[in-house]
Structure formats: structure tokens, C-alpha cells
Amino acid sequence: MKVALVHDWLVxxxxxxxxLDALCEVLPDADIYTLIHKPGSQSPAIESRRIFxxxxxxxxGIHARYRHFLPLMPxxxxxxQLQGKYDLVLSSSxxxxxxxxxxxxxPHLSYVHAPMRYMWDLFDDYFGPGRTGLPVRAAAHAVxxxxxxxDRRTAAGVDRFIANSRHIATKVQRFWGREASVIHPxxxxxxxAQVPLEGGGQGGYFLWLGAFAPYKRLDxxxxxxxxxxxxxxxxxAGQEAARLSAGSxxxxxxxxxxxxxxxxxxxxxxxxxxxxxxxxxFGITPLESQAAGRPVIAYGKGGAxxxxxxxxxxxxxxxxxxxxxxxxxxxxxxxxxxxxEAARAQAERFGRAHFQSAILREIHxxxxxxxxxxxxxxxxx
Length: 381
Fold this sequence. Notes:
Layout (H helix, E strand, L loop, with lengths): L2 E5 L7 H12 L4 E4 L9 H4 L3 E3 L8 H4 L7 H7 L8 E6 L14 E5 L10 H5 L6 H22 L4 E4 L2 H11 L3 E3 L7 H4 L11 E5 L8 H9 L4 E5 L5 H5 L7 E5 L6 H7 L2 E4 L8 H7 L4 E4 L4 H4 L5 E4 L4 H15 L4 H8 L4 H15 L15
Parallel strand pairs: 1-2, 1-4, 2-3, 4-5, 5-6, 6-7, 8-9, 8-11, 9-10, 11-12, 12-13
């Protein structure tokens, strides 16, 4: 089979790119189409492919400023021409990738990380008061109706949808009027599951880890820990770094910046718990924490409800500092019944092999074929 993989952009290597990496492994001869590509930013499995980019790639400084070109992205993805005849187009989409124009008769299967979140239900998280300057907010309000119409219209060009969680499947139905099956994304947990379960949490700190994007709501954690007699260690970087680190922070909050991947397992293991503040589409960090044998204190909406259980974490009901602080204060009592082995067992349900086998079944379904009952991901296509 000749397969075209479509991904929004290849600039950083995060959750969406880990999905693409797993797709590359199960589709070893696929080409990749994307808006822009920063060479060297991806895994070897991705970088080794033929990668075709849009006209946005030629804009000076695009890799640092690509978010500013959101209004041009629909045109850019539609301008991409498939280089040859493909048996299948498989898009990995959280912005515009699903809008690639496919030739008549070429099946299009789309794996959805989220509908265009900044134009739908999380608009205020990105463009609300205090989030950005007045000119940007005005521009966002101006283009929002058009982008939403485009997003809904291009959904009709997809033959079959897969959502990365039940939470996102609900959004696919609500925003696009389409049904979606659910395959949770692959999580590479092996290195986190190698740390010993005994002695976890001895660092005495709570951990927040992620990109400093508006919807991640790191601000909720920072404000909560201002009122707590507990340490918060923050790992990550991103577009909100200057705003979040402005002014003085109390001594119990420590910014570590980006840390080496090799340091993450021990960082999780020594934490008392992971603090998870966003309403996430799925959320990989809670599973990494559980694989390392540590619990999660999570906002009780979105993908966290599918990855964290009452045995492996706590939930706070409102996305506010007060609600999070109250949960942290209850943690001492809750922790007495926590079992690290239960957390690791929960994480192991979301492995890479399961994802790849499920993807193969969806591919064969969209092609109208039948896959044998017990495939292995190595079977490929």
C-alpha cells in the first residue's frame, strides 16, 4: 500500500508527534505532508520520511511565528498536492490537517486530537482578556466565524474519523455532526515503568509538567500554591512563559525550565503527585506519572477522566486556584490509601502495541477489508 500521512506542523515533538511516530512505525513506507517542518525537530522515524511542506515553509522565521499565520493555514493545507497516487490518506489533525484535498476515490481516515480548539470551546483560553493584545483579540474574533465554517465543511471530506478519547469523540459529534470511533493515543511508558515503586514521593514536592500554552492553565496551579505550605516544581516552557513568570513568586514555587527526557522518570517518581490543571483532550503526563508509581491531582473534566481512576488520583471540580488548593489539602488523607502498583497497572492499559493494532483495524475498515482476529503491529500493511 502507498499511504500519505498528513500532520499539521512538525516544529516540536509532543503528544501529536508521538502519535505520528507510532503511525510511521506501522506504515513504514508512508510519505508525510505538513504545513511546515523544522528539520531535526522530530524522531528518526519521522525525519527519515519524504516530507512535503506548504508555501508557509518559505516565510522567514516561520518556525517561531507559525501561530500568527492561523488564518492562512486552511489555504495552505488545501494547496498541498499529493505527489503521486495513494491508496489511503491518514491525517493526524488538531488544527487543519484533515482539510487536505484528496482525489476522488482515495479513502481519507482522520485521527483527531481535537477539533480546532482555539476556534471552538477554548477560544477564550487563547484570546480572552489578558491572554493577548487587543489587536490579536480583534483579529481572532473577526476570523473565528469563517474558520469554524471551514472546519465544519472540510469534515465532510473525511470518510472515517477516529478520536483520541471519548471526550473528543463527543466534540466531533457536536462541532462536525460526525461519529468517531475511539483509539487512545500511544504512550511510551517503558522508561517510566522501570523506576522502582518502593520509596516514591520522597522528594516532597508536587510536580506540574507541560507546555506553557494558555489552555494548560498553569496559572491555576501557581495561584493555588501561593496559599499552600507545599512545594510546586514546574517543568516546561512555551508561549506563556513571560506572562507566567512575571513578578515575584513565593519560595515554594520553583521553575526548572525544560529538563532532559532521561531525567523525567526520577522527577515523576520523587514527586508526591502530578498536578494536572488543563481540560485536556487526552493527556499523556498523567499516564507517565502513574507508570512511575505516583498519583495525579487532576481537573475533573476531559481526557483525565479516562486515564485517572479514584484509586490512582484525585479530582478537583472547578478550574480555579481555590478548588485545586482544597484538593491538595485533602491529599494527605487520601494518600494513606494509595498503592503505587495500582497506578502502574492503570498506565499499562495505554501501550503502543494496542494503539497500532487498533489503527490497523481502522485502516482495513475504511478500505472495506477484514483484518484477522489477532494481528500484531509488526504485520503492517
